[in-house]
Sequence to fold (360 residues):
Amino acid sequence: MIRTKKKKSTPQISTASLPDIVFMLLFFFMVATKMKEITLKVEVKKPSASAATKIFDKSTLRSIYIGKPTADLVALYGNQPRLQINDKIAEISDLDAAVNDWRNEINEAERLKMTISLKVDENTKMGIVTDVKERLRDLVALKISYAALKTSDTGEY
Amino acid sequence: MAQRKKRELQEINASSMADIAFLLLVFFLVTTTFDSDYGIQRKLPEKRKDQPEVEKETKRRNAFVILVNREDRILVNGEEGDIRKLKDDVIEFILNPQNKDNLSEKKTIKSKYFGDVQVSKGVVVLQNDRGTSYKRYIEVQNVLAKAFNEMRNNLARQYFNTSYDELKYLAERADKDAMDKVDAIEEIMPLSISEAQPKNVGK
Fold:
């Protein structure tokens, strides 16, 4: 009874502000979207870890990728795990130059804070990772981070 | 004449504007990846010629040796171990609550916050084979990180009535007091994990 009475008297909600709202959201996502700065030449599926912590200081963070070359590059680089530094497939010996470059990019006061994020595919064997770690020790680039996906604690060991 | 036409011109229908905006919105929604950098942060040991490797100078009872072999099996102090029990074993080894003589020794240090405290001399030695899978290695690293986090959280709760995670969070935001407290906790509960040179077991 009440329903029918009310329905007749309620005017339709105006949708005139809808585009504004949508545009606002749109601008938010346009600003927040960060396009990938490098194209990955190796496949990296990060392992998951619940104890992974967020790295806040991005300005001193540099990445090394390790994984099998992507399908279209197998002919060129083979199917064994390779190293990618910046946007090139590299050898372990290329780390020297890369670490040097990275150090020069970061201003002097923050140079010691440089963290190298090892983004390694979970199916990689430790051999190549160990070689990279040893090289980093030689180069005194000691702060590293094993990149991982943050997962919840449940169902883990 | 042309002017007359203009006057008759109707307003452009803007009702499809929302649709267009929605389409763009959906596009950006789908492509956006908030790829925040998460990771297990570690410090590699320094390479020094004049200093022997950590594990050589560590007494047998102070080393908790975890070996992850090429088949991703885990050996703890030479015996087959279970990753599900690993966290509790590490905590027991470091804290050694009953002062057993096969677990880690303790030394007393003076701390600014806590006065004289007992600190474990134990070191967790993590060894891996070149054939160990990275996934397994991170699983073990994760367990170790969790073990040390738990112990630090307990300390923080005991002394500061807050959790270590909370202090760490504040310290990241340049809270001076929290930074001191984090340092104090890390001093009496250091992350003593040695990532030893890998072994080539059964190559």
User: Anything to note?
Assistant: Strands of chain B lie at 38-43, 63-68, 74-76, 79-80, 106-111, 115-120, 123-128, 193-195. Chain B is about 45% helix and 20% strand. The first strand of chain B starts at residue 38 and ends at 43.
